Each structure stands twice: as structure tokens, then as C-alpha cells.
Amino acid sequence: MKINKKYRILPRTVLKKSPRAVLGRGVTLLETVIYAAIFVVLVLAVVNSLLAIVKSYGAVRVSRAINISASAAMERMAREMRKATGTDAASVFGFSPGRLKLNTAGAGGAAVIEFFSDNGALAVKEDSGATEYLTASSTELTYLEFNKITSPAGTAVKIKMTVRAGGANMQRSENFYNTITLRGSY
Q1: HSE (CB half, 13 Å, CA atoms) of 45?
Q2: Global pTM?
């Protein structure tokens, strides 16, 4: 396309096209508004997706903390109960927070192992030794109940436990149940 430089007149074929297409100048205001709207919609979709991923990750992290903490606590209680010969009279059954004192007989002689709730954590104490915490500091034990089941075949203890975890935005609580037979009782 030739433009007459002397008179700055465009040929007739060029005049049929829009001035913007001929001269190669910018975009119209309407086009700018449409492009901006499309960009805003795309940015909102990406941000919404990222927020959903972060929220999902937080929920998984809280759930995992609860499950790991409760599983470790239940495992330790089950192991100690299976080795026990009986329960101590000082145990508190049927109420929360419960207290379970187990009488055990091992190579070192007779011992008493006690499970109890201490400031939102599940604690264990062997004889007069130091208190050991079974639940993680990121979780809170909100309910602990022991129930004694006695039958002619032996003695069992049913455990009901509720563990809670989370921060300001995400709170989650889960219940855990287990029944363990005291093998030394039959």
C-alpha cells in the first residue's frame, strides 16, 4: 500500500478499511474494556482455585494430625492393656475425663500404669515415674471415657476418645473407639 507522501492522501482502496487498520494505531476503548473484563474473570478463576487448594490442604493437615495423634495413643493404650492383669480400684469408669489404672506384672515385678487426661492431652504414668504425653501438642483431647466390661471369660476395657485440632479458620474433631481385652485377666 502506497501513501502519497507529498499530499498525505490515501488511495481509494485503503479508505474502505477502518482508519485503525490502515494506520496501525491502538485499540478502541470498547476493546480495552472487553480485554480487561476477560482478564479479570481469568484472574478470579485462578485465585479461587488457589484458595480452594489451600483450604483443602489445611483440612487434610488437620485431619492427619488428629489421626496420627489418636492412633499413637490408642496403640499405646491397647499394648499396655493387653499386658495388664487387671484394673486398679482407683480407676474412674463411665465418666469423662476418665482415669484408667492398670495392674501389670512383668520381669521387673508388679507395676501400675495410669492413663488420664491432663490439660487437653492424653498422659501415661508408670508407677511414680515421669508423666509422658501420648497426643501431639497440635491436638487437644476433649473427651476420654473408659468403661469396664466384665464377663466370665475375662475383663475388657472400652475406650471412647474425642480429639480436636485446627487453627482459627479450620477446626475439626473426630471420635475414636476401641475395646481391648486384658489378656492377663483370663
Answers
A1: 6
A2: 0.69
